[in-house]
Recover the amino acids of this structure.
């Protein structure tokens, strides 16, 4: 039941709020109880003093008994108090019956209780209870000496029923608890909204991540906040985008590979079939078998390149860093391609800043880069065009430039030529290529922590430039 974050949050908040309100309620209630009792005591004491003064005036003949009774009534109305005035022997000689208590004729009753003795000695007392057995219900009693002419001449007792006080207290309690309940309902409502807000993106992410796991990349989390949960949702969406992109790439990659393998296979099958059933005349059979052989070579190349690319992408193929003379590598590649270059009447211009140019890198991979770039330059160059190769050092880097005078690459294509299988114009520039060369080149250069750039002008030619880490001679 407490497994969901939302429920857990709600329950935790609820317990916190409830215990806070409960503590507050109890504290407030006891505070009010004390406060109301104290105020009532003070009121009784004050009225008791006032009665003493009226009695003094009465005994001096300055007011009559009617005025005295009137005062009693005022106090009764105000405090609901029974009033006793006794002489020093304890006989009640003047009294008033509280309108809230039983009708009893108190006059000539004799007080014998301890409290009377204490008050007569000059003490002021307060008691809560039935004052001996005098009252049927609990009362708050205040007793004080009656002082006339600076002498204790008797006592004054005021009894106020506690029920009235209790009623006030109950009212207070009630309003405290009512507001506590109201505020807890309000805060629960608020909490509900906040917790929902907090947990909804998490729940959503949970559901969507499950969908992604099953291959559905379409849905995203709605991000509303900027807090940590909002950031998490945002990153989650970015991750989903990246995964979707990757999945798209994977699908098009598989489609491309299948296509690239299928077309040579189909033509090979056609040729071999033609040779076997003699639809191709015997004198042409050699020619077609040779084409089929070329196709197998192309497929072989394609598969090797694919393997390279996948090894680089999965990080299986670690670069073995050594010190390499990149000028020497270029020379070797050039020599191997001399015949092809001559065949097409091209010129090669080599501009090495120094004879030996040491860089840090994997010798085989760097050779692969040079081969790919140079082969492209030879393949795409115009007949009799110039191929220029240059190496130079700048600060900690060596730069290598391989340029041709081919058709160039339009600006809008530059970003794409690094993608696997991308060929600008397949029918024109295919020339037995696979479209994998440049993506392998880029991966290798990136694997060295370096960069590759392309400068190209349509109709004039292309120049590929890449950087390498220079090795300083000790
Ligand atoms: N030097 C160049 N001049 C013009 N276009 C080029 C050059 N190098 C590469 N390209 C374009 O980029 C594409 C991708 O090159 P690459 O990855 O080496 O594949 P491939 O050489 O197998 O076609 C080529 O098909 C071609 O359209
Ligand atoms: Mg190529």
């Amino acid at each position: 039941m407490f497994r969901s974050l939302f429920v857990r949050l709600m329950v935790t908040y609820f317990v916190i709020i409830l215990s806070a309100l409960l503590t507050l309620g109890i504290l407030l209630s006891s505070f009010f109880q004390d406060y109301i009792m104290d105020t009532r005591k003070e009121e009784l004491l004050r009225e008791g003093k006032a009665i003493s003064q009226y009695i003094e005036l009465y005994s001096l003949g300055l007011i009559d008994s009617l005025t005295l009774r009137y005062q009693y009534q005022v106090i009764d109305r105000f405090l609901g108090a029974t009033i006793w005035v006794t002489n020093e022997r304890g006989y009640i000689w003047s009294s008033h019956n509280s309108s809230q208590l039983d009708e009893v004729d108190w006059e000539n009753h004799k007080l014998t209780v301890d409290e009377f003795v204490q008050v007569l000695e000059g003490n002021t007392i307060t008691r809560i209870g039935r004052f001996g057995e005098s009252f049927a219900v609990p009362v708050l009693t205040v007793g004080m000496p009656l002082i006339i002419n600076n002498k204790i001449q008797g006592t004054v007792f005021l009894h106020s029923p506690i029920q009235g006080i209790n009623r006030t207290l109950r009212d207070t309690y009630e309003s405290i608890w009512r507001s506590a309940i109201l505020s807890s309902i309000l805060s629960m409502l608020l909490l509900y909204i906040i917790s929902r807000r907090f947990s909804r993106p998490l729940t959503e992410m949970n559901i969507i991540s499950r969908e992604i796991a099953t291959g559905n990349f379409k849905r995203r989390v709605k991000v509303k906040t900027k807090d940590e949960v909002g950031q998490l949702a945002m990153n989650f969406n970015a991750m989903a985008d990246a995964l979707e992109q990757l999945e798209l790439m994977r699908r098009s990659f598989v489609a491309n590979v299948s296509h690239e393998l299928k077309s040579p296979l189909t033509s090979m099958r056609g040729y071999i079939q033609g040779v076997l059933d003699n639809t191709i005349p015997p004198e042409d059979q050699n020619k077609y078998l040779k084409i089929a052989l070329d196709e197998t070579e192309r497929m072989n190349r394609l598969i090797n390149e694919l393997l390279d690319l996948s090894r680089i992408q999965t990080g299986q193929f670690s670069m073995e860093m050594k010190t390499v003379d990149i000028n020497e590598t270029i020379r070797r590649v050039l020599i191997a391609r001399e015949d092809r270059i001559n065949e097409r009447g091209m010129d090669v211009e080599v501009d090495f800043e120094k004879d030996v140019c040491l860089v840090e890198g994997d010798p085989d991979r760097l050779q692969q880069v040079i081969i790919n770039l140079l082969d492209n330059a030879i393949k795409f160059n115009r007949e009799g065009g110039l191929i220029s190769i240059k190496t130079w050092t700048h600060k900690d880097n060596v730069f290598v430039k391989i340029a041709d005078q081919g058709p160039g690459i339009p600006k809008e294509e530059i970003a794409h030529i690094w993608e696997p299988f991308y060929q600008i114009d397949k029918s024109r520039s295919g020339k037995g290529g696979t479209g994998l060369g440049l993506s392998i080149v880029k991966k290798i250069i990136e694997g060295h922590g370096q960069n590759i750039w392309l400068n190209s002008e349509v109709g004039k030619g292309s120049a590929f430039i890449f950087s390498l880490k220079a090795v300083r001679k000790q």
